[in-house]
Structure formats: structure tokens, C-alpha cells
Write a structure and sequence with these properties.
This protein is mainly β and 37 residues long. It is built from no helices and three strands. The termini are far apart.
């Protein structure tokens, strides 16, 4: 049983998420802006 885990780093308006890439042992990280209107 394998649990996939998503890490979210939220600071101010920028959200950074890191997802473990299966079979590589590395993290795929992405960044996006959170629009709060």
C-alpha cells in the first residue's frame, strides 16, 4: 500500500506544491499565485 503525499507551502499570495515523482525519488515542485478577491 503506497500513499502519495502532496506538500503545500503557503506564504502570502504564493502557493508552492511539491509532489513526489513515482519511481524517481525526486520531487516535482510547482508554484502558483492564489487570487483572493
Amino acid at each position: 500500500m503506497c500513499q502519495q503525499q502532496t506538500l503545500l507551502f503557503i506564504s502570502d499570495e504564493t502557493v508552492t506544491g511539491c509532489i513526489p515523482v513515482t519511481g524517481t525519488g525526486t520531487l516535482f515542485c510547482f508554484e502558483y499565485l492564489e487570487h483572493s478577491n
